[in-house]
């Protein structure tokens, strides 16, 4: 599986072309956008929301458009992606960082959107990421994940027209939902939609709300 350093380097290389290819949320299906709208509608007024793996900021713009009252935070592993996001999203607080070690205090956000940002994380790493989302979420906080559904990995060669390769990890929505349930979240939605257009796999989604206090080992993770 592609190392974290290699993933960072790859997205630094492709950042400009990635941002040009996916400038906004127009690629998402109406079903996808409806689920994001549901997530946003459940957030309280003025909530602080983390776009975890924000890339160049396309989902930050969507959230800003839908809910201008939200206080938006963006985090991405790639410095080049964050540079593009800073140029295009002056309304958001942005930082370079790792989803398995989120540079935010405990209980500091009411929502986390992780839109296709866990697709290079194996099962163990995904568990660390869910731990971090639990740690930074307030009681009642919401998390929405979008990812490629299935099992195993697929190889992406010549990513975005560049001489870089990446491994994309497929996740079973049932297993992702179970990971959240094990960390004190109530799963509000768990679904898979068929692949469309040029998508090679079905797409998975999990929406969850943090309901209870975290157990000791998880509460300490990353804190």
Average of per-residue pLDDT values: 92
Secondary structure tally: strands: 9
Q: What's the gyration radius in Å?
A: 16 Å
Query: Roughly what percent helix?
Result: 25-40%
Note the total helix count.
7
Question: Span between N and C termini?
Answer: 27 Å
Helices and strands, in N-to-C order? HHEHEHEEHEEEHEEH
Using the alpha-carbon principal axes, give the shape: globular
**Main β-sheet, in a few words?**
7 strands, mixed
Runs with pLDDT <50, length 5+?
A: 216-223
Strand order of the largest sheet: 3-2-1-4-5-9-8
Strand fraction equals: 25-35%
Structural class: alpha/beta
Structural description of this entry:
With 223 residues, the protein is of the alpha/beta class. Helix content is 35%, strand content 26%. The chain has helices at residues 4-21, 30-41, 58-66, 79-88, 123-136, 173-181, 216-220; strands spanning 48-52, 71-76, 93-96, 109-115, 137-148, 153-156, 166-169, 185-193, 203-210. The protein has a seven-stranded mixed beta sheet with strand order 3-2-1-4-5-9-8, sandwiched between helices. Helix 5 (123-136) links the parallel strand 4 (109-115) and strand 5. Helix 1 packs parallel to helix 4. The radius of gyration is 16 Å and the shape is globular.
């Amino acid at each position: 599986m592609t190392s974290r350093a290699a993933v960072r380097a790859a997205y630094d290389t492709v950042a400009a072309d990635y941002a040009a290819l996916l400038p906004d949320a127009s690629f998402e299906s109406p079903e996808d956008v409806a689920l994001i709208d549901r997530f946003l509608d459940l957030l309280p007024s003025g909530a602080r929301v983390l776009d975890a793996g924000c890339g160049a900021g396309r989902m930050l713009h969507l959230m800003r458009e839908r809910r201008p009252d939200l206080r938006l935070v963006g985090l991405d592993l790639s410095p080049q992606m964050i540079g593009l996001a800073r140029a295009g999203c002056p309304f958001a607080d942005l930082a370079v960082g790792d989803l398995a070690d989120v540079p935010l205090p405990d209980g500091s956000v009411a929502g986390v959107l992780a839109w296709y940002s866990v697709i290079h994380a194996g099962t163990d790493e995904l568990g660390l990421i869910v731990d971090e989302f639990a740690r930074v979420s307030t009681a009642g906080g919401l998390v929405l994940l979008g990812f490629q559904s299935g099992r195993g990995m697929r190889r992406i060669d010549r990513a975005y027209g560049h001489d870089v390769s990446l491994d994309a990890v497929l996740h079973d929505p049932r297993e992702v939902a179970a990971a959240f349930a094990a960390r004190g979240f109530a799963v509000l939605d768990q679904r898979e939609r068929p692949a469309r257009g040029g998508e090679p796999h079905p797409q998975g989604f999990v929406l969850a709300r943090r309901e209870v206090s975290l157990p000791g080992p998880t509460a300490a993770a990353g804190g």
